[in-house]
Each structure stands twice: as structure tokens, then as C-alpha cells.
Amino acid sequence: MARMGTLHLVRHAQASFGADDYDRLSARGQQQALRLGEYWRERGLRFDAVLTGTLRRHAQTLAGIAEGLGQALPAAQSLPALNEYDGRALIAALHAAPPAVDTPEGYRQYFRLLCDALAQWMAGTLSPAGMPAWQDFHAGVHGVLEQVRQQHAGQQVLLVSSGGPISTAIGQVLATPPEVTIALNMRLRNSAVSEFSVAPKRLMLQTFNTLAHLDAPPYADWVTHA
């Protein structure tokens, strides 16, 4: 029997939500990424392949993981299909002004609008400026999963991306309806790990949204969502 591989899907560490430039890690995000690498080093995990999106927060998360691992990683393959959708463009397509996120109510309102826009985009009734159709976004993620299945069965693969592509990948493996895929997206935490078993014929979900690397008293306040 062929050895089963594992695809480790990591949502990027905390970025700069609410800032003019979201696409960079916060100080806490840098700590989260480093700690994940340290956790894996303590367990002797080694990777055979690395895939990432092309966003800065993906590269910075991968750099933190690599530092914590203390080992040379395989050269990362940067794939635009692993980049996040544009939340501001989605909300703007609703003809709604993005609420300020500096209050709890503003934060909740932002994500209510985002979930509404995501549902309409996935249904094909919303076409945000500068974004692909949902079918193309979905197909891009599917192509990455097929690449992993065909090329990396039996291997340990690290994938660093964002909540949208990761929840889309999980939705494909579990065949979830759009509303469940959106709900999965909203639950993903910064630096959280989800795992697929990788076999030549299929991928299977093993874990979802885990933060084992932060499961100790010193890291109790390190859990973030945005």
C-alpha cells in the first residue's frame, strides 16, 4: 500500500486588518508564524514541497515558519490561484460603503456585508471589479488540489494561503453548499492549520482550523481571526 501524504493548509498569520495596507503581518502575526515553525520543529516535521499564494502576508508567514523550523525548506512555488479574493471590491459591488472596523459593531457589520457579497458572487449575481468570476476562482483552487494529488501523493506538503482559498479547498473536498463554505471561511483563524490526507486518487479532510501550536498558557492571547 502506498504511503499516505499530508497537505498542511495554513491560513496566513495575523495581518494588518483595518490599516491602509492590510497585506503585511502585524507584530502578533510574526510571532504566530514563528511559533508554528517552532512547534513543527519540536515534532521533527519536514516538508517535501511548499506552495504559497503571491501576497506579501503569505511570504511573510512562510518566512516566519521557516525561521521557527530552523531548516531549509524546498523552494516555494508561488501560485496566484492561492491568493485571497478582494473583500473591499466585494462590498463595493453591493454599493455599500465599507464600515469603519475600529468598533465591535463596525467589525460585525463589515463581515455581515462580506458574507452577503460572497453569497451573491458565488451565485453568479455579483461581479466585483477586478475579480474573477466565482467559477474561475473555484477552478483555480481545484487545479492546485489536483496538482498536489497528482504530484505529491505520499509526501508532506506545506501550503500557505488565505481563508478564501482554504475554505474553498475544504468545500471541494467535502462537497459543501456555498453557505457552508462561507461559514468555514469565517471561522478560520490566523496561522490555523487544516490537514488533508493525500492519496493518488483523492484528498480527505483530517483536521480543520487547529491551533495546537498556541495551545499553552503563554499563548492564550495569541488567537486572532483577522
UniProtKB/TrEMBL annotation:
Keywords: Hydrolase
Gene Ontology terms for molecular function: hydrolase activity
InterPro entries: His_Pase_superF_clade-1 (IPR013078), His_PPase_superfam (IPR029033), Mito_Ser/Thr_phosphatase (IPR051021)
Record's keyword annotation contains Coiled coil: no
Taxonomy, superkingdom: Bacteria
PANTHER family linked: PHOSPHOGLYCERATE MUTASE-RELATED, SERINE_THREONINE-PROTEIN PHOSPHATASE PGAM5, MITOCHONDRIAL
Listed name of the protein: Broad specificity phosphatase PhoE
